[in-house]
Amino acid sequence: GATEADDVGDGGTTGYVNVAVGSNPTVGEAAGAGTNLGNYETSIACSGDSSASANNAGPLSLGTLPSGAVVDCVITNTYAVPVVTNNLPSQSVQYTDAIAPVTVTATDLDTVGSGLSATTSFNKSGGAFSSGLPTGLSLAVASTVGNSRTWTLSGNPLVEAATYVVRVTVSDGTGPGSHSDFTDITIIVMQENAAIEYTGETIAQINNNLTLRATVWDSAASGYVGTNAEPGGTIGDITKMWVEFDIYSGLSCSGTPTSVLFGQVSDTGTTGDGIGTATAQYTSSSENTYCVVARVVDDNNTANGDTNLWYTAPNAQTAVIAFYQNSGQFVTGGGWIVDPAGGGNGKGNFGFNGRYNKKGQPQGQMVYVYRGLYSGVLADYVIKSNSLTALKFSGSSYPFSATLEGKCTIQINRASDGMQLYGDGNATFSATVEDTNANSGAGSDSYGILRVYDKNGVLYKTVPKTLLGNGNVVIHNK
Fold first, then answer.
1. What is the pTM of this model?
2. CB–CB of 60/52 below 8 Å?
3. CA end-to-end span of the chain
4. 3-state secondary structure of 475
5. Which terminus of the chain is less hemmed in, N or C, by CB atoms within 10 Å?
């Protein structure tokens, strides 16, 4: 038949249409622009001189009508697809932290709420959708009232940093005649915060292994010192962290490492407490001092990048290790003391060695590192010797002491990535150390007095005589 009205919308009408006597007219509808009749339940009910009816969109025959007959037909369209919405379309959260619960609501005019069911799928960083949910999340029915039902999406995403789109699809049945719709929820998962500190050995004889060790803390672990601390929060899988040990000559403490070693974090100590360690072995065939920077990476394969997608942490404060030859008169040592500046973790890391060469001239190295703010940025302050100009041994019995003096460079490296922020040379230093011959240097041996003067002769750094927090000083005074 002929179309009598286009896109009439809700409450629209064709008005009265004249038809020929005995023509057996029909009435029905077709989808308007942008409309899919398959999403609707349609019925036609006529009154007046015809009581024809149908549970579809027609065409419906009105029969043979006599002259003067009047028929009114009403077409009713009931939206049959569940209307699905959520109250929090997007949010950001760190790995292991609980998401803000999301309420998904579905309403279906022709289906009771108990007849609505939900399924889930998700994609990662724009990839294909897979059934289910990111690990750690769950969807549960929250309420059912009338023709509506709600679900709650909640949990802690135990997945690597990425953008995840969770799709909740609600259906009003199965098989032919069923309808469904969905709503999307974007969850941006970010890396969890962590802290790392060098806690390994600091002194060894040449040609012997020295154990490099770094301790890491999840931000929810006891003793964590860093940004976004979460005491009582959910602790993640710290074994997803690897530690890269970058080893530099004590003369540079930056640039290209002379050696790079790796260790995967193990959950040492109390299982699940969020504190672990990673280790590696290093040796030197010559008497030398090295700077060690420990940092969190993804694995031991540098070819695929080094960004850990589970945890992020500033580099550990630069540590110093020393190798010595156990012969003749010499002084060596390494470890940490409480630095008077108190920045960062409050520690001053040191390492040194010194002896006289065959020409009777002092030779060796000294490095001292402490952490503080530089122009508002957390940084490592590195004082590293260029040469020794004097070396003095004192004492005929323990405790022995030794004083190293020489020229040095002052260098400031950004803590987050080791980038050099400042450097200046032609400075001078004097450092005195003491060996008590105790089994452990911690709490017995001492480092200091340290005085550093810049190139203008202005006092730049001073450290009083301070007992070691860890490490050792060895003076062979023969």
1. 0.80
2. yes
3. 118
4. strand
5. C
